[in-house]
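Help! Submission page says 'invalid entity' but I think these are all valid:
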Amino acid sequence: MVIYDDIMYWLVLIFAESHPYSDWIRGILGGLVIGAVFGGALVMVYLERKFLGDIQSRIGPNRVGGRYGVLQLIADAIKLFTKEDIIPANADKWLFIGAPIVALTSGFLMVAVLPFDYLLINGSYYAVNVTRMDISILYLEAVSGLAVFAIFMAGWGSGSKYSMLGGFRNIAKMIGYEIPLGVSIISVAIMAQSLDIVEIVEAQDFLWNIMIHPLAFIVFGICLVADVGRIPFDQTESEEEIIAGWATEYSGMRWGLAFFAEYLHAVVGSFMVALIFLGGWNGLPIVGNLYIPGIFWLIIKTIMVIMFFIWTRGALPRYRIDQVVDLGWKCLLPLSLLCLVWSTIIGLVFG
Amino acid sequence: MTHENTQITSPPSPSEILLHLGPQHPLQPGPFLLDLKIDGETIREAELKIGYIHKGMEKVFEDRTYIQIMPLTDRICYLASNANNDVYCRAVEELLGIEPTPRAKYLRVIANELNRIQSHLLGIGEYTTDVGFLTMFIYMVRERESIVSLLEAITGSRLNHNYARFGGVANDLPPNYKSMALKTLGEIGKLVKSHDEMMSSDSIYLKRTKGVGVLTDKVASELGVAGPPLRATGVEYDLRRIEPYLVYDDLDFKVITQQDGDVFSRVKVRLLEIQESIYIIEQCLDQIPSGPYKQHVTPYITRPKVGEVYTRIEDPRGELGMYLVSDGSNKPYRFRIRGPAFATAQALPPLLIGTYMADVAAIAASMDSCTSEVDR
């Protein structure tokens, strides 16, 4: 893996050292990372269609681009981008236009602090990410919260009753779920004694957080599924009740962007699970990463989390909105507080 | 919550919205309009408006000869086409004063029960999409395909069977049908059982369906609701048992009932009825006598004597009746259909009051009403 180390060395030098064109190169590389996560979202859409097809005893895309339909997404994208751009007559135009942009922006902002590896170069450690923040986990959570505004903008701006109901549902759901999500993250941060994702991952070099703190993993996982709005928590866009909710009036390119932003969130969410609970680039617990570069471990774990998301979509029916809110306030919030107690105890005893 | 008060009378207050669910909406099997007055997510008032696909079938039938009507009865409700054929055929047979041959009786029972299975499978499938369980829908449709293939092997068509004839049926069983049918039905029985277990053990599913949309037996009887929605309230009302027609007298089967009358029970009744229908078909395939499958004495032009007749059978959705008046010509003088789905549809709005938006989908789909038949 000498080549890998060389590439990373070069990257980290640019990121870390004060190069005259450092800011420019950093910007370009940031764009590349965004592109990579963008590609990851594409892969997720494809995986979802194939894997969900398998679960449901269908084939999935199988025409465009050979037997496995690998180019189906490109065909779909062309279709979406060439469709007529319809803005309903009684829509609030700027909110309507702005909603997919806000959704995508929130997804891209999240990518900025995602670390992909942590390397020892010339005796000092460097994290491979666009921006190293010492509060990166708080930043992630704050930025992911912006997506709520996007959905409410879409719901309110569409000028449709169904969309508005979807927007209301989203707000009700998010208020209930952002709190346990945040508390479960904080309980993990307490154990690592840092709000920096890199530090949290490095604290898992021997045992993963999922083993030390399974309850926080469960709370975080459920809240994350609710956060990215997938079955069983996709009440905001349930088709049979409120006709795709906030997305009712969207079509063509705008719908495509909003739809894509959701997948972007799901991918970044999967990265978060892999980083915070599954050891990130640390390979397997105890044995370490077995001479495989950390970034591959991270990607493998992320894909497994994505597959888990897809599996839940295939296996579960949808909650009713009042049950979702009940679950958030009456079950997950107390559980997350329990997480906090547990991690404080662990922190006091072993910390 | 009574069934009289199902009209939206006052305009919505500032905290309420008037929501038109329909005429085109993903939850509907066909076009109808469900006006809901909602406060947040809670439904305050509901009003059902039907008639968007009124086809005037009863009037059309009065202008057709008796044998011409037969294929049109398929179109009353395409999921219960065989039941529609059968009840019409029995009505005309009663007018003509003839009996189907013994073999034809068994064949009709087989076709009827296969029809019931496929209708229930699709009904449950549509319902599961409405509670957000898309996988189950596709499983149900997959299972339905093999049942429809069995029907195709007997009747020659997959959807609109046009199978019954006055005094018999259109085709005999194909060779090796028994082994083929027993194999398929055994598999379907097992699969449906496992789907039933999967649904009954899912906590989210139970939360969504238990105690939701409770129809009481009193309201159900008052509105003429029959079939699975009535049997789910604990009433043992099944025309196959109460008023046995064809060969249901000689067959052994249970009338499936559940006690709660909620969404869960209605679907459970259908799931268990599938098993019961499979059992009935297996008995029929064992007992079926040899002999002619249709009577060749039926005249070329059907001219029943002057008279009137009302026959009813157990449709997959409830009690299906047809009333015919003959004036001695080759066309019926008056034709009237008493569809099960109409009664089921009018029981829907009172059930919705006080529930949440998400329950509308579950309750409406669990009633399994067929818009095509409601409007006729």
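Support: the input was valid. A stray whitespace character was the problem, and the output above is from the cleaned input. The first strand of chain B starts at residue 16 and ends at 21.
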